Predict the structure of Methyltransferase.
Amino acid sequence: MKNGKQSSQPEKGSSRILSLTVLFIALCGFSFYLGGMFCSERVKIEANDVTSTTTKAVASPMKPTVSPLQIKSVSFPECSSELQDYTPCTDPKRWKRYGVHRLSFLERHCPPVYEKNECLIPPPDGYKPPIRWPKSRDQCWYKNVPYDWINKQKSNQHWLKKEGDKFHFPGGGTMFPRGVSHYVDQMQDLIPEMKDGTVRTAIDTGCGVASWGGDLLDRGILTISLAPRDNHEAQVQFALERGIPAILGVISTQRLPFPSNSFDMAHCSRCLIPWTEFGGIYLLEIHRIVRPGGFWVLSGPPVNYNRRWRGWNTTMEDQKSDYNKLQSLLTSMCFKKYAQKDDIAVWQKLSDKSCYDKIAKNMEAYPPKCDDSIEPDSAWYTPLRPCVVAPTAKVKNSGLGSIPKWPERLNVAPERISDVHGGSACGLKHDDGKWKNRVKHYKKVLPALGTDKIRNVMDMNTVYGGFAAALVKDPVWVMNVVSSYSANTLPVVFDRGLIGTYHDWCEAFSTYPRTYDLLHLDSLFTLESHRCEMKYVLLEMDRILRPGGYVIMRESSYFMDAITMLAKGTRWNCRREETEYAVESEKILVCQKKLWFSSNQTS
């Protein structure tokens, strides 16, 4: 309307505004359309389940529009022979840089990028392929772990004994002079749950040469043996050389790399951890990682102090005071005394809500109840907290007596799977079926899998432990690694009766060189290459892989050429294989590490 009358023509300015408005709306609509197409395709690419896209991938004649990643040829040099037992994040040569308070120098302190070695770790002079399981539990080659100090210091306690070119492990220990089997028999008399599948997972702190964990394998209990890196004893290296699960670690200032309420049992046999010092903060970490209804077993000081105190270079009064303090701390953390006989004492973590409610109501209680701001599963470079992690209702239902016994629990979806975004019982069943099919195919392309040629296995980026579950009847054990940057699925792995750890593959793993027979990864570079440089991941894999060991890399075709080039630089023999569905977008690279010796050595 213009001057009260209808105008025969719109003004030129209005016409221009109208045209621009229409054009803007059209462009917005077109961009949303393109965005929808892009997002839908991205979802297809990132989906983990190859099965759902198989039909489309096979039927489509279209070739990938993105060219595979290409890198220049590389050949990594040999490291100095002085680095044959190099552990980058627990390197004794770097200890002086860190504090001695609570032995924090023994914790993980990884070198920065500019200090990382870009070379291949050589084996010791005279190294031989490890003795195969189960003989390896009782003996190993001396040249593979040539440590005379531990032999001289512990031979009188029957930890191990050098005979000719081998170490023999008679199964002795400081607190079990009659042998580890007799010791475990006594323990089972105190804890009947060790006999019927109730107790499945355990952790041994200060593990010696892992004889306790080795004996439990025959009893259906899977144990992670834990000990720090040291200059002489190499406890974890002995354990893994024997084919027994183990990892480098120490309870000091940071949480252990496990989720809360994971282990059915924790064990300390004169492990020299000062449990009553620093306000009992080490006991609080044991409380965090043991599931409700689980057990903590202690043998050694101050247990049985009235008979043993003379051999501990102390007085009966001091040991009695230490025991009373220990008992008081455990009670304040909702542990109850379960059983004791001679040198073995057992406490059980309560699942009763009333105990934790009392702590919460008492403002002067020590230790206090952790508040809601403290995430109980946060365990990668997370400081120890001087508070009690109270089990939630969901965790309580994952306690001993509530979850199924082994082996039934392997195939039952834990309640904590609902904490994982998109997690469900149906999803777990589907994942297990997928991995059974994949492992069946793996055994065709790698016939050594499932035989005594492969014992120590690592799944470098598991979700629910499906790869390990598919191998549960084979003579292997699997370390299930969950990325510290991915969804927190490790509680599900432990609830199923499997073992694992958190880790960030931009850093070195907490183990010695030459400790795994098989490394498996599924789209690790697809998920992590934006954070972690590929060559350092391959070099770390080479460090922890035994000579003669294998790698199965399941990866996007985009990364396959680059990975193959890097693998050649590590002297691996590799071949490319199709997946079980022969899809173009994903391939399998199977590699074997050669046995070679440093040019600076005599053999």
In short: The first strand starts at residue 139 and ends at 141.
